Amino acid sequence: MNYRHAYHAGNHADVFKHLTLARLIALLARKPAPFAYLDTHAGVGLYDLGGDQANRTGEYLEGIGRVWSNERAPALLDDYLGVIRAMNPDGELRHYPGSPELARVLTREQDRLHLNEKHPEDGELLKNNMRGDRRVAVHRGEGWLVPRALLPTQEKRVLLLIDPPFEQPDELERCVHALEEAHGRMRQAIVVIWYPIKDERQLKRFYQKLSKSNAPKLLRAELYVHNPDDATRLNGSGLAISNPPWGLEDELRELLPWLAQTLAQSHGGWKLDWLVEEGAVNAKPAV
Ligand code: SAM
Questions:
Q1: What angle do CA 188, 191, 197 make, to 5 degrees?
Q2: Measured from the CA of 44, which atom of ligand 1 is nearest?
Q3: In this model, does residue 284 exceed pLDDT 80?
Q4: Which residues carry out catalysis?
């Protein structure tokens, strides 16, 4: 386990993932019924952008750094930026929330959080960072076992984030398996898979597997900061979102062009389409 998210915290992929997570939570919170938030690969929860790890890569400068200094961000960013502003009260960008902290702050009294992180040190940091919030349970086991271990939940609504480090060659496949396991246990779960846009051939197989999965409906949203023609670099990132709440597709259609323009490095772009449409039987593989 070599991956440490502190090197990448706040980069373009984090901005896209965390903004979408904030919108998902806002849309779920329109109804008073409680929901559970599950994070299979949670990281440490809080990041110091002034620290050695973040500064060694400087990735956040081309991610949240650009958004932070942009005065014309759409109102749909308010919740996400509100969390970051509260962590940086003097207006200087120094602290950045991981998915656990973002979810912790944006969820309500009646909601519950299950956060899992396997790395021994990062698990300890996560536990310390989440201390004092009785709605949060921190687990330090195998992330791929989370759907089997925790679903179904007592809450009828679930938001499950699957965000592995992609250190192993089989992790795209494992994501599909975890999604299927989640829907086998809770058909109505909202499952979000984050994936890197690198090798197009591998991604094609991933899309085919997703489109043949048991997800009742599945939205694909992608943000590119480079042309996706070089498999050795992170050209962008994608989110596969099953059972997206009503309104998310329209919101992403508004946000993605702005994100592509704001975060583009050599080339900006985006994609939004359905890998599985509602009611589809034997869905055709998407390309
Ligand atoms: N979700 C976090 C966020 O958005 O702030 C970032 C997570 S980071 C991409 C992936 C995390 O998975 C790392 O912290 C890594 O230590 C952890 N990890 C790696 N292998 C794991 C496994 N098999 N089970 C659980 N966690 C794992």
A1: 150
A2: 14
A3: no
A4: 163
